[in-house]
Design brief:
417 residues; mainly alpha; two-stranded antiparallel ribbon; 10 helices; elongated
Length: 417
């Protein structure tokens, strides 16, 4: 069938286009035309053929082809109403057609009425929880959720610190009565507290007039020739209250003064040296020995052989018997009980006689102080004090005995001036 009819495009423009021929279906039933709605794309307008019938006037109602039997829309109700809403009817007749062509063409689009839905708080909370759980299972949620949780913890800690810390700092604390600490033994006042004559013979310091430096060729002026004799007056006052012989007390105090000038950070007190001297040899009185005026212990004090018997350590001979007279095992020497290898390392000459003698209380006390201050120790710190004593003799019972005796000496001599 030829292109004998044309229809009018009544939506946006009045343009006549040829009516496509209706092709009957294979089963012989007439096709059901589908009404064109607003927004449907228009097929391209074919070129006009020669001899085609002239276009009808704009606004004319299209006529179906002969033999075509248009069927109503499947969604339309029998009474002509739309299935979407009973209020809105599709117009028909010349007035409706003219109005559709003049107002933009096509059928009126029906909009569904939006009803307000009231959501309960519980339902809203449940929905929010479900949405959060679903989001947390996604890759983005797995990364973001821990970060948000950590940020919340940091913010809570900062807020608590800003509120609690100033309140705690500003709160006055009761002042408790000071009690002596047992972590470090009590120490007495430094020997230099009472008026003393100018010290002589200190390593690295200038000696006063008439007093030679260690190793000088001129004869010493002091009566006994010991630098520690400068502390004789102080020792005569402290000795009766502590029970320490004056000669030993001078040696301990002189070692403290030397270390105060050569190793100020150590802050070793004479009470610690005196406690070691008491535990090791009863201040040079072990084995029936006696301290002489020059500080030497006679007869010489030598400990038991270090053969591993009787709870003693086992140390084979290291000095060929030169210091201890034993070529099989080492023995502890002198008032401070040094073993030969330690004395060879740390031995000192405190009295300036040119000899490092472990049997001289002056030399032995200064060597013990140098040993305790090794490694940058500060003897006012509990950990350093205990570490130093245990390095001298690694026995807990020994260290506790030294602590108790040093604490006793400090308490007894505290008020002596």
């Amino acid at each position: 069938m030829g292109d004998t009819r044309r229809v009018v495009d009544g939506e946006r423009r009045a343009t006549a286009r040829p009516l496509r021929p209706a092709a009957p279906p294979d089963d012989g039933t007439p096709p059901i035309p589908r009404p064109r709605r607003e927004g449907d794309a228009l097929p391209p307008e074919p070129p006009a053929e020669a001899g085609a019938n002239p276009q009808p006037e704009p606004g004319a109602k299209p006529q179906p082809e002969a033999g075509a039997n248009p069927q109503p829309e499947p969604s339309a109700k029998p009474d002509g109403g739309s299935g979407a809403s009973g209020r809105e009817q599709t117009g028909s007749g010349p007035d409706a057609t003219a109005g559709a062509a003049a107002g933009g063409g096509g059928r009126r689009r029906r909009m569904p009425f939006a009803h307000a839905v009231r959501t309960r708080p519980r339902e809203f909370a449940v929905g929010a929880v479900r949405a959060t759980r679903t989001w947390s299972r996604r890759p983005g949620g797995r990364t973001t959720l821990p970060a948000l949780f950590l940020l919340a913890l940091v913010a809570a800690a900062a807020t608590a610190g800003a509120v609690i810390v100033p309140a705690a700092v500003g709160r006055p604390e009761p002042v408790a009565e000071a009690t002596p600490s047992q972590s470090v033994p009590q120490t007495a006042a430094a020997p230099a507290t009472p008026p003393l004559p100018e010290l002589t013979g200190l390593p690295g310091t200038a000696a006063p007039t008439g007093t030679p430096l260690p190793g000088a060729t001129t004869a010493p002026v002091l009566p006994t020739g010991r630098p520690a004799d400068a502390l004789a007056g102080w020792a005569q006052r402290v000795s009766p209250v502590t029970g320490i012989p004056a000669v030993a007390l001078q040696a301990y105090a002189y070692a403290e003064l030397v270390l105060a000038q050569t190793n100020r950070a150590c802050q070793l007190s004479w009470t610690t040296l005196a406690a070691i001297g008491y535990v090791e040899s009863r201040h040079g009185a072990a084995n029936g020995a006696t301290l002489q005026a020059d500080g030497r212990a006679l007869p010489e004090i030598k400990g038991e052989p270090l053969d591993g018997q009787g709870g003693r350590s086992r140390i084979l001979d290291t000095d060929q018997g030169a210091l201890d007279g034993d070529r099989v095992h080492d023995r502890a020497l002198g008032p401070m009980q040094f073993i030969p290898t330690t004395w060879q390392e740390i031995g000192a000459d405190a009295d300036g006689d040119g000899v490092k003698n472990p049997h001289d209380i002056d030399d032995a006390a200064l060597a013990a102080g140098l040993y305790l201050c090794k490694g940058g120790r500060n003897m006012t710190i509990p950990g350093d004090w205990w570490g130093a004593i245990l390095s001298y003799n690694d026995v807990r019972r020994y260290a506790q005995a030294v602590f108790d005796k040093a604490d006793e000496y400090g308490r007894l001599s505290r008020n002596v001036r």
